[in-house]
Amino acid sequence: MCYGTQSMTGSIVASEYLKSADGLRLHITRWDVNEPFGTLLVLPGKGEHGGRYGQLAAGLAACGWQTWGLDPRGQGLSDGARSRIGSYDEFLTDIAAALEALGREFPGRPAVVLGYSMGAVTGVLAALRWPERIQGLICVSPAFVIDNRLRGLAKVFAYLGSWLFPQRIVASGYNPAAVTNCPLEQQQIAADPLIDGTTRPRLVVELHKAGAQCLRLAPRLAIPTLILATAFDRIVDARGAQAFYDRLPGDRTLHWYDDQLHDLLHERRSAEVTGEITGWLRERWPGA
């Protein structure tokens, strides 16, 4: 199913459902442009959704790129219980469906994956698994290291819980002030019924292990990679961004933002972040 409206930027804002290999309906918000040079596939963070990236999409549309925002299973308008997975590979099943749709509809055009927080972990693992399908990678506040949230007994509880009661809900709150300093964005997050803070032990442990895998396998990542991070991050350990950058072998860029919190694309300087992304895309794909 697909329906759409014309946005102020001239792009078409559409809503579409894809089917995952294991039978789930996955929702995608599409900001399409006529004859796009390429597509930015957005993988949102834990508990949020791909429909939040209209401002980013507007900036990209101005230079000929379209944006697709994927709701992974259990998030946004996609099927699945909130934050319920058995294995992190299930998220790769979701991105595979989106990449296949892109390949069918826009063969031969570059596909760049932007992953935010947990989505950056998914994006890296996808790029390692399907390097022929992904031409570039952007990691925003990547959750490669979350040991700041798993200190002492918290880590023991998470791993023990993943074994004994993997799908028990151990937290449900989503604090907007922890991810952005912008009052307007805080209000919008609080009012968004599709943003959810449900947390289960299995997801936490799978993310922790997947982030470590990203660092371990980073030397194999051969595509252009942009990393955007802030040392003021309260959600993830920002040192993971530096560690990942240090291990990358090829075209790599790391940009640090001062006085910003975790959700850089919904912060006070979000326009600057969008400009960094569009500039990076133009440099690497100058035909756009």
TrEMBL record:
Signal peptide interval: none
Top-level taxon: Bacteria
Molecular function GO terms recorded: lipase activity
Limits of the Serine aminopeptidase S33 domain: 35-268
Gene3D superfamilies in the record: alpha/beta hydrolase
GO cellular-component term (any): membrane
Record's protein name: Gll0778 protein
Protein source organism: Gloeobacter violaceus (strain ATCC 29082 / PCC 7421)
